[in-house]
Amino acid sequence: MIRARGLVQTFHTRQGKQKTEVRAVDGVDIDVEEGEVVGFLGPNGAGKTTTLRMLTTLLKPTAGEATVAGYDVVSQAQDVRRSIGYVSQAGGTFSAARAGEEVMDHGMLYGRTKAEVEKRGKELFDQLQLDGLWTRMPKNMSGGQKRRLDIVMGLIHEPTLVFLDEPTTGLDPQARANLWEHIADLRARRGATVFLTTHYLDEADTLSDRILIIDRGRIVAADTSENLKAQVAGDLIDLEVSDPDRLTVAAEKLGSIAEPPRDGLPGVEIEEQHVRGRVQRAGRAIPGLLRDLDQGGITLDSIEVHRPTLDDVFLTLTGRSLRDAEDAAEAAGEHPAGDAETSDDADTSNDSALTGADQ
Ligand SMILES: Nc1ncnc2c1ncn2[C@@H]1O[C@H](COP(=O)(O)OP(=O)(O)OP(=O)(O)O)[C@@H](O)[C@H]1O
């Protein structure tokens, strides 16, 4: 359904007299099969939106090639647009029409009948908790309601391939959970292929069959969440030691079975009353460890086991946690298209192009 090879996007920016080149996407390969839900995960500024904009024909690749739904994103852009649904991060711009009319007009532009789009539109309003807002002007909706309206616009023509750029950013937990359900349902009921960007680990984990992790414009991992986690050194055992004077001995005992430090993951660590370390299989290791601690006269206030997270995967692969990477990107002022003067090779046409008339 999606195949990209060596996709590159370079922006040229100018701050004062100084020109800089930003290689936002740096040789990306992507393969997505029909019916897959793929989560495209990475910190702020990693290149997710830029990749998505190339795949949805809003931005011409500087180099490389991609086909989406069997069509070339450059030479067959119109066919690509007709075959996909796209919900941009920025959101679409709405006219002065009422929300329901806007949605119906949009659906009819894709060749659906009025009755079809009205039925489907009302269903989507209901599912995304917009019931009662069919005749409301979008400008009089809250931010979260507008975001959900964007999503209705992206889904009204029942596309079988949907691109969602950070779909749940700005939604409250209830609306977020509903949208997750809706995305799962799109695949289950209609066999839709979904490609979504996110920097929420739980979102990528819950929704995706497969996860692509991007960092600094390059794909650093592509696999199922389970396989990615299995590559990370084991489960984290967290011991809360009752007597602070026995912390070092407890660390030695855990250290005798724990993984040594590697790939950005620390070995056994002591923090306040806690001793933490990773073991391959906590279930097998714990009985022996408890015996050993007992024989050493060490009593525990608690013991907890944490399965590896996608953040551990990111840490192992990049040496930084996703949060640190995001903080660094923010501190460096990375983000936002539009901050800087953009080069002529970047077609920064409005994202709403795909949620407007089909062109
Ligand atoms: N139009 C532009 N002009 C200049 N630089 C840009 C432009 N668009 C993006 N960039 C830069 O390209 C890099 C990748 O940005 P992109 O928006 O693709 O990241 P992202 O992973 O989608 O981030 P986020 O999760 O915050 O949306 C960043 O360094 C960003 O500042």
Give a description of the structure.
It contains 12 helices and 14 strands. The protein is α/β, with parallel strands linked by helices and 359 residues long. It folds into 2 domains: 265 residues, P-loop containing nucleotide triphosphate hydrolases (Rossmann fold); 75 residues, UreE, C-terminal domain (Alpha-Beta Plaits, 2-Layer Sandwich), CATH 3.30.70.790. The strands form 3 sheets. A 6-stranded mixed beta sheet has the order 6-7-8-3-9-10, sandwiched between helices. Strands 2-1-4-5 form a 4-stranded antiparallel beta sheet. Helix 3 crosses helix 4. The longest helix has 18 residues. The radius of gyration is 24 Å and the shape is elongated. The C terminus is likely disordered. Bound molecules: adenosine-5'-triphosphate (ATP). The site of adenosine-5'-triphosphate has 21 residues, from strand 1, strand 2 and helix 1. It comes from Solicola gregarius. Keywords: Antibiotic resistance, ATP-binding, Nucleotide-binding, Transport. It is found in: Cell membrane.
- Percent helix: 25-40%
The kinds of small molecule bound in this structure are: adenosine-5'-triphosphate
- Number-wise, the strands total 14
Outline the biggest β-sheet.
Answer: 6 strands, mixed
- Tally the helices: 12
CATH superfamily of the largest domain: P-loop containing nucleotide triphosphate hydrolases
Structural class: alpha/beta
Per DSSP, what share of the residues sits in E-state strands of 2 or more residues? 25-35%
The value of Rg in angstroms is 24 Å
Question: For the record, what CATH class of the largest domain applies?
Answer: Alpha Beta
Quote the average pLDDT. Answer: 85
Return residue spans where pLDDT drops below 50 for at least 5 consecutive residues: 335-359
The best one-word shape is elongated
Q: How many domain units?
A: 2
**Terminal CA distance:** 22 Å
Spatial order of the strands in the main sheet?
6-7-8-3-9-10
CATH topology of the largest domain: Rossmann fold
CATH architecture of the largest domain: 3-Layer(aba) Sandwich
Order of helices and strands: EEEHEEHEHHHEHEHEEHEHEEHEHH
